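Journal club side-thread
Mid-discussion, someone asked how the predicted structure for our own chain would compare to the paper's figures. Pasting it here so we can look after the session.
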Amino acid sequence: MKLLALLSFLFVWTITEAQQDSHTYDLKKCLAYAQENNPHKNQLEISRKEVNAEAKLAKSKFLPQLGAYTDYRQFIDNTTYIFPADEGRIISGGTSDSPYPIRLGQKFNMYAGVNFSQVLFDKRWLSANEFGNLSTELLTLSEEVLDEEVIYNISITYYEIQKLKSKIELINDAINRTNKLREILELQVDNGVVKRSELDRLNLTLSKLGIDRQQLLANTDLMISRLKYTMGMPEETGLIITDEDLLVSELVMGRELSTKNRILAQQQKLGELKIKDVADDYFPTVRAYGDFQFQAQRNSFNFLSDEKWFPQHYFGVGIKFPILTGFEKKAKMELEQIELERIKIKQERITKEEAIQLQQATNQLAAANLFLDHNMRNNSLSEVLYKQIELEYEQGITALRDLLIASADQTVAANQYEEAYFEYKLAQINYLKASSRLKDLLQ
């Protein structure tokens, strides 16, 4: 018994020391901390940067293009041009009456210039903007899915910790009651009223209660570590969970469109946009372009001399009309249409599944409420019965065995009530999840 008392003292001292360096959190504070420190948010931020970069990349081909270039050519033989007979007669000074060949140009040639182009019309420009907007919205919805998962996991773990704490309190109460009985029984053993075997039986009960408490404490530490991980809180940070009640009156019954369905709706828009983008490729594109070029020809490799560089500048507007692409666009549109049909089928399936889940969660909530009421009454009756038998035992009317049985029954009833109470809490959270309203817990 001295060992048990020492363990109890160490437990109380450890809890007291830990509380001095710990932070107290209720459910809303845990959720708020996770919103700011969730490690998965870093991955989402990288994805957001990636989406923005891809949107810029898609738009870049519609923006002005400007480039500089240089080109060096050395001819082994200069290019031969054939002039008609009339022109050949003039060039040859009348010595030739047939087509007249002549080599033009020089061996060493250098070109340098600047060119530009700008898309004036491309119907896919609007699609590029819409693609960027839809991708950003899908990423935002993905972030909401992650937030909902975090809210659900934190809420479940939070109430699991509360349940373990309540069980520890019940065991502490049982230990206190049993210790009081033990004090009475020790006096009776010393006076020879009862046998020492009755005291030994009581000591065994106390030992079992102590072991159960240590196991619950270990499970509580494990659940708190899990909660810290989900919140993104460092393991070395002290965390104390406070009691908090989520009353059914705070639950607004109803259902909102789930994030999964909203994601599928956005994916459907994205699929329709892809079909439109392929169809827009049938429209002509208009492009303006220009080239500012300078050319030099030399008999030797000497382009830094004072000899002249000759300009050759031009600009223009080009129109491209797609006519036949081997039915490539038609095949692309068929593939996108098949993907759209797949999304619609998935949307219908998820809608049905969510309706079933909501009905199950509603039934579970109602059943948990009835079960809670039933166990509340049982707990109250067992408490009254225990106090009555305790009084009878003190008056010498009832045997110790009956008192121990009543105490055990009262502990069982109290545990069943706590189980029902937290099952009701979990039913409320599952209802919020099924109705796509887990973020109500943040309010």
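Post-session note: Strands lie at 22-25, 65-74, 79-83, 100-104, 108-121, 238-241, 285-298, 310-320.
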